[in-house]
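Predict structure. Chain length: 86.
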Amino acid sequence: MGCQNSCLVERAQHKDPLLFRESKAVALCKTDLLPYVPFDFPACRVYIEQIHAQIPVFEISSLKGSGIGVFIDWLRRECRVELIDR
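Prediction complete.
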């Protein structure tokens, strides 16, 4: 894959692959730290897409406030769909 340090998603997927195949979304938090940590973010996104090609990936930084609104909007839509389907 080319990750210098293995992607946490990759490690977790091997422990519980069903969780990743059945998930409705991935929230990648603390993205404001990416410039300061040895984490290959693009490779991690590629790996997520290999596991579940259609899954939405939300990049969230609470420090900067980025991505939170989009994620909350998605959660609200998903909750409405769940309630309607019942």
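Summary: The radius of gyration is 14 Å.
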